[in-house]
Write a structure and sequence with these properties.
The protein has 307 residues and is an alpha+beta fold. The protein folds into two domains: 124 residues, lpxc deacetylase, domain 1 (Ribosomal Protein S5, domain 2); 156 residues, 2-Layer Sandwich (lpxc deacetylase, domain 1). The strands form five sheets. Strands 11, 12, 13, 14, 15, 19 and 20 form a seven-stranded mixed beta sheet that branches. Helix 1 packs across helix 2 and helix 1 crosses helix 5. It binds zinc ion. The site of zinc ion has 5 residues, from helix 1 and helix 5.
Length: 307
Amino acid sequence: MVHLDTSRQTTLAREVELTGTGVHSGAPVTITIVPADADTGIRFRRIDGTAGPAVPAVWQSVAATELCTMLAGSDGRTIGTIEHLMAAFRGLGIDNALVEIDGPELPIMDGSAADFVEELEIAGLYPLATRRRMLRVLKPVRVESKGAVAELLPHDMPRFEIEIDFAGTLIGKQAMAFNLTPGVFRKELARARTFGFLHEVEALWAMGYARGSSLDNAVAIDGDRILNPEGTRWADEFVRHKALDAVGDLALAGHAILGLYRSSKGGHRLNYEMVKALFADSANYEIVPAPAVAAPELPAQVRELAV
Ligand SMILES: [Zn+2]
């Protein structure tokens, strides 16, 4: 792979097309990821029916965070389940792309970011002339909701410390901490699948949601059993997936974040509230040019608490 100068913005070297199933609609969906100019950011555009506006993937475009992270355009049409593709863009360091989509939600693929990462890496990254900018956290920012807590703290690397606690289930308490680099993202996060408890999925099915959800795209838990015959990809796949979601949701800040994101019992709602709180006060952050020297690839600092 080409060694990229991390101080410059990137896009894709060519178009990427992926087809799959929408996890909530159960309908087939195709996305085309198109290279974009510097300072475009990541944008999503509905192309079913009349082509819609190119909706910037930033927190101001968020319409819902209940079952997934969903954007809405000025035409009112929504684009759901963006978080795993957003994580892949941020994880691999892709700053600019236009995602065209022929339906209301992204394909769920296998419930992780693995297929997105594979296709994006096959296409390759294309360096642009424009300097990359990052968001540096200047002061601690904290949000809380129903026992869940998240905070952003000043730090000289993009760092995540994620903890979950599903006491009384086979998930139990899990935690992981890492500096976000493409290598760590690819190896430790990208393949972690979404998960759910069978009784919750059944309740969603009864309400007409999660129609495309199956053991092909989620780890399903029933009591103290994992229903997937292949089991989990890691014993702590659950916290790894929460970390993947956090990387994708924090990408809605519109820049890579130089700071430490710490979250306990979080989810899409809390991640979104965090980004909103960050931007609520301009004294919380500054936008800085990315360092001119490539950041060294640090080893994943993964630790697992008692499960
Ligand atoms: Zn997820």
